[in-house]
Amino acid sequence: MLRLHVFNTGWVTLREERLYLGGERTPHTLPVLCFVAEHPRGLVVFDAGLHAAFGTAPRRYVGPLTDLALPFRSRPGMTLSAQMELHGLCSESVTHVVLSHLHFDHTGDLRAFSRAQRYVARQEWQAAQSRLSRLRGYLRKEYAGLPFTLLDLSLRNGLTLEQVSRDGYGVDLMGDGSLIVVPTFGHTPGHQSLLVFLSYGAVLLAGDAVYARAGYARPAAQPCARSPDVAWRTLMAVRALAKGDPNALILPAHDDSALRDLRRPDVLVHDATTSRATSSG
Prior knowledge:
Shape: globular
Order of helices and strands: EEEHHEHEHEHEHEEEEHHEEE
Number of strands: 14
CATH superfamily: Ribonuclease Z/Hydroxyacylglutathione hydrolase-like
CATH class: Alpha Beta
Number of domains: 1
Structural class: alpha/beta
Helix content: 10-25%
CATH architecture: 4-Layer Sandwich
Number of helices: 8
Largest sheet: 9 strands, mixed
Radius of gyration: 17 Å
């Protein structure tokens, strides 16, 4: 059975108004989630979370201005690879790493998966090469010199499971229809998400296509999207997916609310402070 593991590699504290338009000034502490799919052909990582430096000296690692704007924090031993090893998932068994985008809270532990093929959208790779990339959340030192497979994705109107299955929308990562990379542009020029077809229903690993469930439930736009109009189209597609299939699970990178009372044996949520995984069924 294909299973999905969920790990938290740290936290960021932001006001609600930075998560979606119309939000309040109330601060929220949000997780930095990463995901590992157990596939018969190997482990597939979606997003690599925070670098180990966020558990020791984050300001020195990203610089004082970036740290003030985006105060990410972690603890020693909370990197994705360290937690995977603790739960019996070997980093050398990772065959594919799919990155939603190249912001530093999604690429921090990328170098731990030396044997994996790395996938990013071509538009995202180009955006990360700009002279202003550091001001836009990119830290090239986290992926400089690493080879990538650049995906050529194009955004369509809507995102339905029927469309993905029938029309071959996106990139079929393993060739068996279980893991489909789909474009969710807007937050960044080449943002992408991963549809995982599990036994108990499909899961959209949304990355930062939406920051919080309230964003697509209301709906309310992202205030800091690189391309606001495109981000809105993406948000409405995520909303349509959530409304069109009640069994579909939407998991953003910074909102674990859908996991708290989850009752699915094909999704294992790991506690970073213990060696415990929770699932049911």
